[in-house]
Automatic annotation (TrEMBL):
This is Phosphatidic acid phosphatase type 2/haloperoxidase domain-containing protein. Residues 297-376, 415-438 are annotated as: Disordered. It is a multi-pass membrane protein. GO terms for biological process: phospholipid dephosphorylation; phospholipid metabolic process. The chain crosses the membrane at residues 20-39, 68-89, 119-143, 193-211, 223-242, 254-272.
Length: 438
C-alpha cells in the first residue's frame, strides 16, 4: 500500500514522514485498546487479606449506580458528540468578522472557516480524546493487574469456607474462597479506579478543549464561560464518587485514579492544542507537524501571515515559504516598524498585519483566529493608559510609551504620536521630519 503524499482535506503535498506520524498516532490508540483487552484477561496478583479487616467487608452491590457502559457514554460519547457538533456546525457561527459573499454581499452564516479548517480541527480533537482515553485505560489496567489490591466488597465476593480464620501469624489468601471465580478475580482490581481515571481523562480533556474554544482565560473574565468549562469536571467527580457509594473502591483508589485521569487528559490535549492561557490562539489546533525548526513563540504565532487565508492550521512551514506581508508603502519606508507593531501584551490583536479592509478584499476566506480586539487598539503591556490617539485631533505632547498602537491601521502623521528618537531630539514629533512616516 502506498502512503499518500497529502492529507485528505489538504491540497498541500506533505513529506511521507508527516503523513506517517499522524497514522502512527492512530496506531498507538489502537495498540492501547489491544493492550487493555489483553491485560483485562490476565489474572491479577492476589494480595493477602485479613478476614477481620472491616474495610473489605462491605456488601457486594449487584446493580452499580453508573455501570462502565454509562461511564463511557459520559466520558467518551458525550465529548465526541460535542467535538463533532461544535467543529462542523457551531465553530465560527458567532464570529464578529464573518466574511461576505462576493455575489450577494451578505455575510456568510457559517462563519469564516472553510471545510478543510473544520476537518483539521475535527481530526485533532478526536485524536486527543481517543489518546486521553487510551492512555487512561491501559495504564489503569496495568496497575490493577500488577497491584492486585482487594476491593471493599472482597469478603462478600470470596464467600470463605465455614470455619476459616486468619493464619497466626499471617493473613488469609484466596484459597479459602468459594465464590464465583470471575467475581473473585475482579475483586482484586481495586487500585486505581478505572471509572475515575477514564471519566477524568475524557472530561478533563473536553473541559480544556471547550475552555480553549471559548477563550476562557482571556482578559474579559466572563463567568458563564467558567461555568460551562466546570460542568464536565463536576460530571467526572460524580462518576468517581459513585464508586465509593457502591463499595467498589476505597477513597484512595478513587483519588489516585482521578489524578491519573487528569494527567492523561492534560497530556493528550497538549499534544494537539495550545494552552488555554494563550487566549490569542483561540483554541485552534496546532498546524501540521514540522521537524528541524525552532518552536514558535507568541509573537511568531501572532505575525504569521497577511493574506487573510484561513489555512493557518494547514500550513507546513517546512514545505513552503510564507507570503510577505501586504503592507502599504508608508509602512515599508518606516524605520523599525516592528518596534511599533510588536507588543508583549498577549491579548493585543494583530489581524496578521492586515489593513481593516483586507478581509473584504480577499473574498472573506480568513479565519476566526484573526478576530480583532477593540478595533486594533490595545495598551502596551505594563504601561499606563493614555488617551486614544486615533480620535482624529491633535494631542498635547506626551511620551509614546503611553500611546495606543494600532495593529490594523498604518501609523501616519495624522495620528499625532510623539516618540523619542535620536535624530528628532527629545519631545520633537517625528511627523515634522521629512521622509519619516510613523
Amino acid at each position: 500500500m502506498e502512503i499518500p503524499d497529502k492529507l485528505p482535506f489538504s491540497k498541500r503535498r506533505l513529506r511521507p514522514r508527516v503523513v506517517i506520524s499522524y497514522i502512527f498516532d492512530y496506531v498507538i490508540i489502537i495498540a492501547c485498546a489491544i493492550g487493555f483487552s489483553i491485560l483485562n484477561k490476565v489474572e491479577p496478583y492476589h494480595q493477602h487479606f485479613s478476614l477481620n479487616n472491616i474495610s473489605i467487608q462491605y456488601p457486594y452491590a449487584v446493580h452499580e449506580r453508573i455501570p462502565m457502559a454509562y461511564a463511557l457514554c459520559i466520558s467518551a460519547a458525550f465529548p465526541l458528540a460535542l467535538i463533532i457538533s461544535y467543529t462542523l456546525v457551531l465553530d465560527g457561527l458567532f464570529s464578529h468578522h464573518k466574511p461576505q459573499d462576493t455575489v450577494s454581499g451578505k455575510r456568510k452564516l457559517r462563519g469564516p472557516h472553510r471545510w478543510k479548517d473544520r476537518l483539521w480541527e475535527l481530526n485533532c480533537g478526536v485524536l486527543g480524546l481517543l489518546l486521553a482515553q487510551g492512555l487512561a485505560f491501559v495504564i489503569t489496567q496495568a496497575l490493577k493487574t500488577a497491584c492486585g489490591k482487594p476491593r471493599p466488597d472482597l469478603i462478600d465476593r470470596c464467600q470463605p469456607r465455614a470455619g476459616s480464620k486468619d493464619l497466626f501469624p499471617g493473613l488469609s489468601n484466596s484459597t479459602i474462597c468459594t465464590g464465583d471465580p470471575a467475581l473473585l478475580t475482579d475483586g482484586f482490581r481495586s487500585w486505581p479506579s478505572g471509572h475515575s481515571s477514564s471519566s477524568f481523562a475524557g472530561l478533563v480533556y473536553i473541559s480544556l478543549w471547550l475552555g480553549g474554544k471559548l477563550h476562557v482565560m482571556d482578559n474579559r473574565g466572563e463567568a458563564w464561560k467558567a461555568l460551562l468549562v466546570m460542568i464536565p469536571l463536576l460530571a467526572a467527580s460524580l462518576v468517581a464518587v459513585s464508586r465509593i457509594m457502591d463499595a467498589r473502591h476505597h477513597p484512595f483508589d478513587v483519588i489516585t485514579g482521578s489524578m491519573l485521569g487528569v494527567v492523561c487528559g492534560f497530556v493528550a490535549y497538549r499534544q494537539y492544542f495550545p494552552p488555554i492561557t494563550e487566549a490569542w490562539r483561540k483554541g485552534r489546533a496546532y498546524p501540521i507537524r514540522t521537524w528541524g525548526t525552532e518552536p514558535a513563540g507568541p509573537d511568531t504565532v501572532r505575525f504569521i501571515g497577511s493574506k487573510g487565508e484561513s489555512s493557518t492550521a494547514l500550513r507546513n512551514h517546512e514545505e513552503e515559504r510564507m507570503d510577505p506581508p501586504d503592507l502599504p508603502s508608508s509602512e515599508h519606508t518606516r524605520p523599525n516598524a516592528s518596534t511599533y507593531l510588536q507588543s508583549s501584551n498577549p491579548y493585543v490583536s494583530n489581524m496578521y498585519n492586515r489593513r481593516p479592509h483586507d478581509h473584504d478584499a480577499d473574498g472573506g476566506a480568513w479565519s476566526s483566529s484573526e478576530d480583532d480586539v477593540s478595533n486594533g487598539y490595545e495598551m502596551r503591556h505594563g504601561q499606563a493608559m493614555g488617551q486614544n490617539t486615533g480620535a482624529g485631533h491633535r494631542m498635547p505632547q506626551y511620551d509614546s510609551s503611553n500611546a495606543y498602537v494600532s495593529q490594523t491601521q498604518p501609523l501616519t502623521a495624522d495620528t499625532g504620536i510623539y516618540a523619542p528618537d535620536t535624530m528628532a531630539g527629545p519631545g520633537r514629533p517625528l511627523t515634522n521630519m521629512p521622509g519619516r512616516a510613523i
